[in-house]
Structure formats: structure tokens, C-alpha cells
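yo, Sulfite oxidase is done. seq:
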Amino acid sequence: MSTILGAEIVFSRFMPSGMIPAALAQTAESFIIEGKHPGLLVLNDRPINAETPPHLLNDAVTPADKLFVRNNGIPPTNVNIENWTLTIGGESVKDAKIYTLADLKSKFKHHTYQLTLECGGNGRSEFNPPAKGNQWTTGAVGCPKWTGVRLKDVLLDCGIKDDAIYIGYHGADAHLSGDPSKAAISRGVPMNKALEDESLIAWAMNGEDLPIMNGFPLRLVFGGWPASTGGKWLKGIDIRNKVHDGTKMTGTAYRVPCEAVAPGSKVANEDMCIIENMPVKSLITFPKSGALHTLGEKFAVNGHAWAGDKAVVGMQISIDFGQTWLDIPVSKAVNRNAWQHWQTKVEFPKAGYYEVWAKATDSDGIAQPMILPGWNPKGYLNNACHRIAVKVV
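structure:
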């Protein structure tokens, strides 16, 4: 950081970890996150959170430097992978064990899947009344290739008691307060999700070590579920005989009203349900919004679509604000929980301003809404149609 500032940070030992120096915060220069593309938009510096503009998500496989960053605490520093261990415990484990990273790599079969990760709050900026928290727009999503071992292989190696219903993770990230007795986040998933083939304990992204901000050296990955269920800097997993009650598993965190409510309603904690499978959604990744196009030429447009644990079976676009829709083909997923791709060309009838809207439909026949879906106090699960602006001349 001193190199960027051009001067030594005197008293740097007192500077809170993760904080952007005021000298940088007061300039137009972008805050650079180590290992990440400079085009990411930093939403918060403590903890560090950053999203990826749609046009930087055009790759079929999301590059590591373009995957969004969602932290709840302060990532560990000076990680020593030789000493890194993973403890499997909890009330419902038959034989608690501790594995080194080398143990995991040598004892279990390796698997690679392309899995979609999306923050439960992606799209929060559109909610009204506004919800507190980072105002994510569209870029808290990505679909890299993850390599590791199946979570179920490790859990079965320890033995699972008949009363097990959930797993909960524990990471090495520190609470923002610095209090070591507090966890930054400790979430989990039901056993049926934990035991799926695609649920991984991963150490690599796109064939390389995980980026520091995405959980190096070890993390959980549950494709199609809120990214918060995939614990980063993974140190422990408990097999629970009850719904995991770790930090951000209770109250209103990562929950939505069990029944529809009016915008602005206050909802009791007991009436909030845990988010599991993410809803159907799509994104236009080419061209960038604000495109200038020549009348008479065909306009090429493409993007991705995903649907949590389901598949995307239909894709449509509109250039007349949803009055009519054009059916277009969508590719098959390379594996379950991976996003799918679409592309097409359209013709505009005359010069002027247009918006291209994209709408996906999942295998249950549920399509994206054109406007903000049901309101919720925390601003989760906005899967409204994505749109870009085009000026035809």
C-alpha cells in the first residue's frame, strides 16, 4: 500500500486491516484488490466487497480475477498451506477427524465442476424501500471451474449419524470487531445439498490456487445456492442434528418472508425463511450498455442464464419494453449448477433509443419477472430482467 501512496504509512500497525487509505478514497483512482481485475467496482472497504460489471462477465468460464468479492470479515493473512487443517466435527459425526490439505488431496478423488455462485443480495440496489447493506447491482455472480473433493466423500469418511440434518462451516476470517470470540460468518446447508455430487471442498479455481479474496487455500462451493453458504478460508465443518445456528444463520440474515408482504413491511423473525435454491436469472454480457449501432445492420447480443438447482429451458429477448418477445436458443449446461449461454442477432426498425431486455425460463416453467419481484426487508433474490441501452443511428 505504501508503494501505491508513494510514502511509508507511519503507524501502519494501527491501521485497521481492510481499510482504504483516505488519500486513495479521496481520489478518482480505482481501489485495486490484490489478484482482481481493476474494472471491478468496490462497494465497501471494510469488509472488502466488489462486484463485476456485466461486460466483464462475457467469458463462458469466469476468470478468477473477474469473480466478485463478498466478505463479511477480515480474510486471514500469512496463510501456511503446510499447516492448514480441516476439522470435521459436530453432534452428528460418528468419528471426528482432522485433515491436512495434503490429506484431502491424497485420500479422496478429485472432481472439477463449473458452478455458478451468486450473492443472495445481488440486485439489492433496485429494492424500494431500500434495504441496508452493499447496494449490489448485477455483478455479484460468476461461474468458474472449481476443483476439489466431494464434501460427501469427506463426511462419509467420518461417518454420519442418523439424526444429521444440516452442516455448518467455520472459517479463518476474523470478525470486523477484532474480537476472536466472534465469527464473521458461519452458515451451512441441509444434508441433502451437502451430499450432492457437485458440492465441493475446493482448493482451486480454473486450475490455479483460489484467489485470496475467494477463500485461499480452501473453501466450500454449493452451486446454485447463495454464495454465503460456501464458507471461505475453511477450517471446520460440523455435522449438526439441528439447523445450523452460526453467525448469519438466524434472525433475518439470508432469509426472506415465508409469505409475500407489502413493500416496507416489518416481518417477524419467525416468519422469515432461509434462502436455499436461487431463482432463474439471466445477464446480457455483450455489448456494454450504451452501445451505438448503425441502422440496417444486425445487432449481435449475448449473455448467460442460470436457475439455481434447476435448468434454463427457455430464453427470450425484447426490444420493445416487453411488448413482444423473441425466442432464442440457449445452450445446455456443461454440468449441473453451471450457467448456460445464449446469443442472437436482432434488427431495429428505425433509428432511435432502444432497450434490449433478456428473460430466462427455468425447467419448472417459471420465468424472470420484468420488474422487481416480491419485496423483502433485506433486499435478496432480485431476479428481474436485465436490460441494456442501445442507440440506433
